[in-house]
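Sequence dictates fold. Below is an illustrative record:

_____
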Amino acid sequence: MFSKSKLSLGMKFLSMQACITLVGLCTCIVFVHFIMSASTEEKLNEQLMQTNTILERSFNIFVNQIISYTQTSLDILKFELEATHGKEQKNSYRIDLNDKVQVGAELAPNLFYNNHSLANNIEFIDTFSTLTKGVGTIFVRNNDDDFVRITTSLTDTSGSRMIGTKLGKNHPAYKIIMDYKTFYGKVKLFGRYYMSAYAPIIDSANKIVGILFVASALDNQYAILREQLGTLPIGKNGNILVIDKENDSFIVGDDNKPSTLPYFNNLLENGFFTYTEDEKKYQVFSKYNDALDLYILSKALIEDFTKSDNRVKQLIMLGIFIIFSILIIVSLLMVRHLILSRLKNVFNTIIGFLEYINHDKKESPPFMKIKANDEIGLLIEKLNKSMQRVQQRTNRR
């Protein structure tokens, strides 16, 4: 049966040195693993943030361009009115609450521009749409303070013109219009999304009597985004996702609905999160774009970024193992040469001296040389003196 008491001093020292080395090696490996993992995560997060910052800036430019185009379209609509019915004056717009006109299924007050009726003026509004590739509408203020479309190029998904339909007091533009301001923003109208502008029409009495509306469908703009961002990789298996949460659709990304994703209900307006899909772990940075009501996600497969670092980690660990191995070998050789070999000589001399005292041997072992003034040297000095005294006593007999 194995027993530590049966081990030689050299073997005990070797075992102790091996244990110390193993503990040190494990400590270094754990430390390197922790530092490398933290560094990898930090670099990954930094890259995702940088990607998303670039995307956010691009989206802001994109939104500003659409809004600028919408503002230009509004100017074109006003220009078309002037070109068709004369220059705009303070009293150009006039509403006649007693002159009701049939617009679609709705009976609404008539709205005039320089004494020209704007109700059912389809040719004018269609000319505007042909020029701008957008849609336009003129609203009149009804008796119930809502606004009715009296001429429009806006259609529903079946292609029916939405003349005679109302704006609605719950519309996001309504309150802003009633504050005599122009509304710019994303709206959903009859199944489609638009970037729009709603400008109040004010008569000579400084009363809001209608609205000028222009908009461009976001379908074509989203197609441009898909083309530009859809193939942009992050790492080897990561990509960019743009999610319309309200409509449960991807503007950029997969063909499936976003609601099938495990994180759909917990999308962050600004922050990181991790999720697992098909047994693979992903790191995501999410940012909300208020102007378009979209979530922009930079997604990366963590494994893509840890592979190279794992190789570096393995090389570092191998280097640490080699260094520790060299150190323990050098340490053992030095200990063997400087201590163990000297102790062995002292041990053999003591055994020989004891055998001489016990008359097992006729001659005393030779005196040992003192090679260093250390503890072993002091032991040898005392041993030599003891052997000398015993020999002198033996010779006197």
